[in-house]
Amino acid sequence: SKLLVLDNLSKRYNKDAMALENISFSIKNGEFVSIIGPSGAGKSTLLRCINRMVEPSGGRIVFDGKDTSRLSRGALRQFRSKIGMIFQHYNLVDRLSVAENVLHGRLGYKSAIAGAFGIYNEQEKRQCQQILQTLGLSEQMFKRCDQLSGGQKQRVGIARALIQQPRLMLCDEPIASLDPSSSKVIMDHLRNINKAMGITVLVNLHQVDVAIKYSDTIIGVNKGKIVFNGTPEELTTDR
Ligand code: ADP
Ligand code: ADP
User: What's the CA-to-centroid distance between 121 and ligand 2, angstroms?
Assistant: First the structure.
């Protein structure tokens, strides 16, 4: 079944440039999809349109059978809670601990005002511990995020997304700031989340070899348009 359908999506930030033009594709439940393309192709805009951080200029985005442009404010918040976001620069609160960053992912930044780990209930703490253990971060749980390596920070980003129990993970250049060995760890975690937990993954990458290694489907974007949509095998025989 289809989890996400994009139908003639377009985005124009200003009068002269079309960042996205008539983008149509769909993603099945449980699929691992990579979007590849050079810098400025529109990859980031595409992900931001999907969770409506950016308002599309035209077209439709249907998530789990619902047109996301017709959601009420409350329904929009609920829809966003089903989408885990991963960013190139992690977007963590550096002066807070790993556990606090993860739990804030679930409870929202309002809770950052309260600050202390003490405000969370036992079930939330257990869930946080469990997710951090899965990601190999048990020992970092009470460390401040500014003491972590880049690879560790990105795993915290993944943990923060996972605690929301998302249906879809949107990952915007998750390995672009990491060395090859940390990149492999992150991509292996994303594959595991996809295959073992059944969470659909949509990831922006500029490394074609990584996309080929991990994806069920690859979508190539250039100058705001789709230039390829197929399997890794089809991409390699195309070239
Ligand atoms: P990519 O993620 O593939 O590097 P982006 O989606 O960031 O591509 O950018 C696509 C195009 O849209 C680029 O020409 C970029 O300059 C432009 N763009 C991105 N964000 C904005 C913005 N907030 N305002 C105006 N133009 C933008
Ligand atoms: P990245 O390489 O991580 O995609 P960018 O440097 O492309 O980052 O963009 C950084 C920020 O600037 C983003 O919020 C993006 O939307 C915005 N941006 C990108 N291009 C433009 C532009 N031409 N005009 C205005 N804002 C832009």
Answer: 39
Minimum-distance ligand to the CA of 47?
1
Quote the Cα angle for 63-53-71, to 5°.
Answer: 45
pLDDT digits (tens, 9 = 90+) for 91-109: 999 999 999 999 876 555 4
- pLDDT tops 50 at residue 110: no
- Give nearest CA residue, ligand 2 atom 10: 44
Atom 8 (ligand 2) nearest CA: 44
- CA 121 from centroid of its chain's CA atoms: 27
CA of 118 to the centre of ligand 2 (A): 38
CA distance 65 to 153: 34
Is 190 within 8 Å of 178 (Cβ atoms)? no
Pocket test for ligand 2, best of 15, 44, 203 (most atoms within 8 A of CB): 44
* Contact (Cβ atoms closer than 8 angstroms) between residue 102 and residue 160: yes
Residue 220 alpha carbon to ligand 2 centre in Å = 20
CB 154 within 8 A of CB 101: no
What is the chain's mean pLDDT, rounded?
Answer: 92
Secondary structure element (H or E) that encloses residue 113, with its range: helix 110-114
Give, in order, the Cα–Cα distances in Å from 18 to each of 36, 68, 94, 122, 146.
18, 21, 35, 49, 38
The pTM is what?
0.89
pLDDT greater than 50 at residue 113: no
Higher-scoring residue by pLDDT: 97, 124: 97
- Is residue 116 pLDDT above 60, yes or no? no
